[in-house]
Amino acid sequence: GAGRGQGKMAAGGAADAQARFGHSVKGLLTEKVTSCGTDVIALTKQVLKGSRSAELLGQAARNMVMQEDAILHSEDSLRKMAIITTHLQYQ
């Protein structure tokens, strides 16, 4: 009779251990999912920041091109004015 009782206890203990194991696995999984979510948010923020700085760099490059055009245009105008001044001096 004593043998049967021990079998039940062992089975009960195993079920209990399995339940505890399942609970700790769930806990670990939840922890991992949370940490993964946090990482994804951080990565998203970083990507957005990167695209924002790329946008700013593009804007700066466009502004420089516009400035360069303005400078070249001014240079051209100065050259023409110098020619006109020279012609006026001759007359």
Give the strand tally: 0
Strand content: under 5%
Give the low-pLDDT segments: none
Mean pLDDT: 84
Can you walk me through this structure?
98% of the residues lie in helices and 0% in strands. It has one helix at residues 2-90. It is mostly helical and 91 residues long. It is rod-shaped and about 135 Å long. The model has no long low-confidence stretch (mean pLDDT 84). The chain has 2 domains: 1-49; 51-90. It has 1 helix and no strands. It is found in: Lysosome membrane. Keywords: Lysosome, Membrane. Belongs to the BORCS7 family.
What distinguishing features does this structure have?
single chain, 91 residues, mainly alpha, 2 domains, 1 helix, 98% helix, 0% strand, BORCS7, lysosome, membrane
Architecture blueprint of SSEs:
Elements: H1 2-90
